[in-house]
């Protein structure tokens, strides 16, 4: 390692050191997009194994092997790119395209968290149920993973090239990066997700403290819909998104979350109402893009979570063959509240213009 460092230092001393970062490479963005997706899928596979009794009390499981294998490949690709650019004359601190130095930092965070996770499991055993989502070592892994998978998103955000500001080809790495964040946050908030358990909505009211049961059902509908709107508004703040973005993000994440806690293959039919909700959002988002009238955006921010919640309620009844046990106060009020929260988020992403104050 020392000889490699000396040779790179010698190479830099014999050529002019380049200032700034290397230019963005769309090919590299796509490579990191795929590797980031590998990490996300590895996390969901490990979660599926936990939920379906496929793990023992050992840290060294096949599911961990897939997750950490994806991390290792992504880390190796970043390190090789970094060394290559240092050899071309770029400074160590700027040897990756804009946005990727944080991804390289994420490799270190993830690695340290992985060792901590192994020690944690050895000391305290394998987490069960919600414990796995709140374990400090797992939260640290989440932070490292998010830093890695958002590299393409940061790179695209920092790029002002006119030909890379619209369309799926140019924006797919950014959209997939944001979808990765949406998916991982959903994963770690699975206890507040409607894909976990239909009993909070249909059939007979579950036993237990009524206020807690009602609150869990409401939260399970609000969390997914608001997470979606937040990510869409964030992306729309920077780009005019290609048609189908919302549908893709929503269906991809709901498919993963359904698989994560799957009891029956029929549960994947939830993608039909989610696709309808996503298409409604895409139409409204496209309308905002063509008119620049922010009212269309605010309408999208209200309608999207409203549609996600109300359509899921209809789906839950159809799939189970049972009726909602909620009264109208809750089953109508919850989607309206989701819409209001989405509407308010639109003011965070696109605040009203501040008028100039005369002296």
What is the overall number of helices? 13
Unreliable stretches: none
Mean pLDDT: 88
Overall tally of domains: 2
In terms of structural class, how would the helical and strand content be classed?
Answer: mainly alpha
Radius of gyration: 23 Å
Helix content: 55-70%
What is the overall shape?
Answer: globular
- The number of distinct β-strands equals 0
Beta-strand content bin: under 5%
First-last Cα distance: 63 Å
> How are helices and strands ordered from N to C?
HHHHHHHHHHHHH
Describe this structure in words.
The chain contains 13 helices and no strands. With about 350 residues, the protein is mainly α. It has two domains: about 180 residues; about 160 residues, no CATH class. The longest helix is centred in the middle third of the chain and has 29 residues.
Structural features:
359 residues, 13 helices, mainly alpha, 70% helix, single chain
Sequence-ordered SSE layout with sheet pairings:
Layout: H1 2-13, H2 26-51, H3 62-87, H4 101-124, H5 131-134, H6 136-149, H7 151-158, H8 168-188, H9 210-238, H10 245-260, H11 271-291, H12 294-320, H13 328-349
Helix pairs in contact: 2-3, 2-7, 2-8, 2-10, 3-4, 4-6, 6-8, 7-8, 8-9, 8-10, 9-12, 9-13, 10-11, 11-12, 12-13
Summarize the structure.
The protein has 359 residues and is an all-alpha fold. The protein is 70% helix and 0% strand.
């Amino acid at each position: 390692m020392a000889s490699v460092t000396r040779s790179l230092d010698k190479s830099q001393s014999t050529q002019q050191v380049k200032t700034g970062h290397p230019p963005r490479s769309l090919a590299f963005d796509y490579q990191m997009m795929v590797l980031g997706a590998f990490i996300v899928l590895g996390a969901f596979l490990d979660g599926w194994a936990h939920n379906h009794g496929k793990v023992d009390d050992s840290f060294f499981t096949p599911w961990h092997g897939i997750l950490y294998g994806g991390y290792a490949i992504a880390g190796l690709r970043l390190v090789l790119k970094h060394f290559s650019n240092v050899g071309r004359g770029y400074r160590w601190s700027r040897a990756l395209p804009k946005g990727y130095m944080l991804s390289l930092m994420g490799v270190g965070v993830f690695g340290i968290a992985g060792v901590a996770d192994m020690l944690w499991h050895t000391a305290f055993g394998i987490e069960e149920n919600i414990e796995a989502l709140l374990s400090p070592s797992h939260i640290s892994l989440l932070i490292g993973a998010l830093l890695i998978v958002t590299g393409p998103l940061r790179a695209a955000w920092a790029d002002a090239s006119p030909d890379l500001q619209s369309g799926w080809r140019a924006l797919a790495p950014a959209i997939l990066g944001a979808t990765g964040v949406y998916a991982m946050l959903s994963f770690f908030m699975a206890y507040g997700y409607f894909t976990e358990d239909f009993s909070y909505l249909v059939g007979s009211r579950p036993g237990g403290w009524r206020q807690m049961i009602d609150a869990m059902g409401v939260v399970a509908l609000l969390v997914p819909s608001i997470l979606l709107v937040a990510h869409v508004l964030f992306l729309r703040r920077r780009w005019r998104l290609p048609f189908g973005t919302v549908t893709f993000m929503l269906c991809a994440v709901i498919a993963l979350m359904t698989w994560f806690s799957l009891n029956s293959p029929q549960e994947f039919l939830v993608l039909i109402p989610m696709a309808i909700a996503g298409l409604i959002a895409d139409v409204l988002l496209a309308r905002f893009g063509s008119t620049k009238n922010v009212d269309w955006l605010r309408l999208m921010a209200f309608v999207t979570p409203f549609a996600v919640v109300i359509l899921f309620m209809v789906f839950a009844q159809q799939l189970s063959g049972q009726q909602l046990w909620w009264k109208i106060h809750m089953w109508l009020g919850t989607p309206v509240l989701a819409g209001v929260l989405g509407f308010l988020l639109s003011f965070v992403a696109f605040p009203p213009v501040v008028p100039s104050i005369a002296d």
